[in-house]
Amino acid sequence: MRGAHMNIQRAQWAYRALFVACIVWASIHAILDVGAAAHAKVSGVSVHFIDALAGTEILAALLFLLPRLQLVGAILLEFVFVVAMFHEIVSRVVPASLIFYAGTVVFLVRLSRETAARP
Hints:
Blueprint: H1 2-32, H2 34-43, H3 47-65, H4 70-90, H5 96-117
Helix pairs in contact: 1-3, 1-5, 3-4, 4-5
């Protein structure tokens, strides 16, 4: 049974690492994207605000990888997602991907706590 528990932990870590990699990639893309500046101007949001939000998201995602700091990372990620959701709703866009990301963070935190509690 111990082997199965280790496989679950590895799978969980692999999924978390993939999730974080996707978030970091998307955030870097948002920072470097020239089109984002034009979109920011149209939506009335400062490019610096988008850069700060993406930078915060990168930091939060990296913290989310560290077991002792996963909760701090999760809270920061959820904050970023809520701010981004608000921006998308105001821009009349359905924030479906952000809802999925927020749910994934909650799922991974709960899963890691349940996995850690197992003998």
